[in-house]
Amino acid sequence: MGDLSLDINIQEPRWDQSTFMGRARHFFTVTDPRNLLLSGAQLEASRNIVQNYRAGVATPGLTEDQLWRAKYVYDSAFHPDTGEKLILIGRMSAQVPMNMTITGCMLTFYRKTPTVVFWQWVNQSFNAIVNYSNRSGDAPITVRQLGTAYVSATTGAVATALGLKSLTKHLPPLVGRFVPFAAVAAANCINIPLMRQRELQVGIPVTDEAGQRLGHSVTAAKQGIFQVVISRICMAIPAMAIPPVIMNTLEKKDFLKRRPWLGAPLQVGLVGFCLVFATPLCCALFPQRSSIHVTRLEPELRAQIQEQNPSVEVVYYNKGL
């Protein structure tokens, strides 16, 4: 068997990202929780394979399937722009196990104020780590900016949850079960823009089709952040809308009345089942490598691109996750 061809483009995902199904297959691979079980040595081996291949050196005996596997292992643990190794719970492969636990507990313990505050705080702490880990671009973010985003999102989530909880006291129990979702949606609208505020100040890198960096754009950052907020809210809908309806029905049955301790694990299991599908499918709503027409960029950047690269009509950027 000869050496592997160097013509495979591993800068892009394996599947066609111009279609929803191609993006879905990509994100089912990226969010695979089994990637969390990989050792540090396995991650480093995958990084070496990918970096060597990008440098024009194919590992002897490497097959195409092994190359793609290494690429996805690398992508699951390292930031695409900075190359830094992500904290374990900040990786997209941790989304399902972490969110199923946190969301399941938010939906189970929604009746008492202390538990509402605690689980909203846990959720926003986790979200802060995920949003920072999966930010777009390589612009640094200060500790003060991190703290502001974290405190603001947590305060917003808790205030929304407690406010809606008090408003739904006299409404049917099923309505109260949807309070955690409203709080999560509100917090996403606060947390993600604040955690990525540096991008809104200095912009994110935009490139041509070949990947050549052309400058930084705040307009592209705004579009990317908006897409991520929509994806995150949509991601939460199945996991926070379907289980409450099922649990509201099951809790009226004798089976759960005699075994109330089953409520929490059953809720977590239902949430996990929803998230296994909702996480990759909602990540796939928008292309990871999004595009924007040059005419929609800031005047200064638009003029610079039209002067230096007059043939470029569309630029590309990493929208983040």
From TrEMBL:
GO terms for cellular component: mitochondrial inner membrane. It catalyses: L-serine(in) = L-serine(out). It is found in: Mitochondrion membrane. The chain crosses the membrane at residues 225-246, 266-286. Keywords: Amino-acid transport, Membrane, Mitochondrion, One-carbon metabolism, Transmembrane, Transmembrane helix, Transport. InterPro entries: Mtc. It is a multi-pass membrane protein. GO terms for biological process: one-carbon metabolic process; serine import into mitochondrion. The keyword Transmembrane helix applies. GO terms for molecular function: L-serine transmembrane transporter activity; monoatomic ion transmembrane transporter activity. It comes from the Eukaryota. Belongs to the sideroflexin family. Mitochondrial serine transporter that mediates transport of serine into mitochondria, an important step of the one-carbon metabolism pathway. Mitochondrial serine is converted to glycine and formate, which then exits to the cytosol where it is used to generate the charged folates that serve as one-carbon donors. This is Sidoreflexin. It comes from Jaculus jaculus (Lesser Egyptian jerboa). The gene is Sfxn3.
